[in-house]
Amino acid sequence: MRVISVLLGLTVVVMLSNCGSSESVLRTSQYKEAVDSLIENREFKVVNQWALPTMSSSMMELSSSGILGPGNSGQRIDLSGNTSFLEIKGDSVQAILPYFGVRQMGGGYNADGEGIQFDQVVEDISFDYEDSKDRHVIKFRANNGSESFELILYVFSNKKSSLFVNSSQRDVIRYEGIIRELSKKDHP
């Protein structure tokens, strides 16, 4: 009798775990279709949740100063409450990205702040899909007049993204976020 109870219990556990995984597979499939559609239409916004600066001695000092706030470090900074996005509409790109890291040259004081900002049409944007890693890869170059940027955006089927920004004047920085469709206020 005890063996039957154990077997029945195991059967219930297996059935429940299978139910959860099929629901997860369905959700993942829906996310993948949504992501594929957004990228195919070339109209989406990536909202960044984390900044991951290049670790340097300056970032280590900043991290140990406590100025970054609780839960943050010199390698991972929470962007909650900050404007941080990359928007693509066809061949137009717009970005407002806070920057944490070392500026190698140039810059100075400017009215737009010291973040990475641009709003322009790009000619060399490429959209690729890597089957083996189940991710979209979007590459392009942008500039803001005095500084040029090379950007690589990876978008995964679960709507998560990873954006690498290489600058002509700053250390590389990476952002982690999520992709979403443009809202009505994002459209002119």
Key structural traits:
188 residues; alpha+beta; Lipocalin; 26% helix; 37% strand
Write the layout of secondary structure elements.
Blueprint (H helix, E strand, L loop, with lengths): L1 H40 L1 E11 L3 H9 L11 E2 L6 E5 L2 E6 L18 E6 L4 E5 L4 E9 L4 E9 L3 E8 L5 E8 L8
Antiparallel strand pairs: 1-2, 1-3, 1-10, 3-4, 4-5, 6-7, 7-8, 8-9, 9-10
Protein model, in words:
With 188 residues, the protein is an alpha+beta fold. It has a single domain (2-186), classed as Lipocalin (Beta Barrel), CATH 2.40.128.410. Helices cover 26% and strands 37% of the residues. It is built from 2 helices and 10 strands. Strands 1, 2, 3, 4, 5, 6, 7, 8, 9 and 10 form a 10-stranded antiparallel β-sheet that branches. A hairpin with a 4-residue loop joins β7 and β8 (148-156). The mean pLDDT is 83.
What is the approximate shape? globular
> Which CATH architecture?
Beta Barrel
Beta-strand portion reads 35-45%
Query: Could you give the distance between the termini?
Result: 70 Å
CATH topology, what is it called?
Answer: Lipocalin
What oligomeric state do these chains adopt?
A: single chain
Radius of gyration, in Å, reads 21 Å
Pick out the low-confidence regions.
none
Number of helices: 2
Query: What's the helical proportion of residues?
Result: 25-40%
The assigned structural class equals alpha+beta
The count of domains is 1
The beta-strand count equals 10
User: Which class in CATH terms?
Assistant: Mainly Beta
Let me know the average pLDDT.
Answer: 83
The topology string of helices and strands comes to HEHEEEEEEEEE
- What profile does the largest beta sheet have? 10 strands, antiparallel
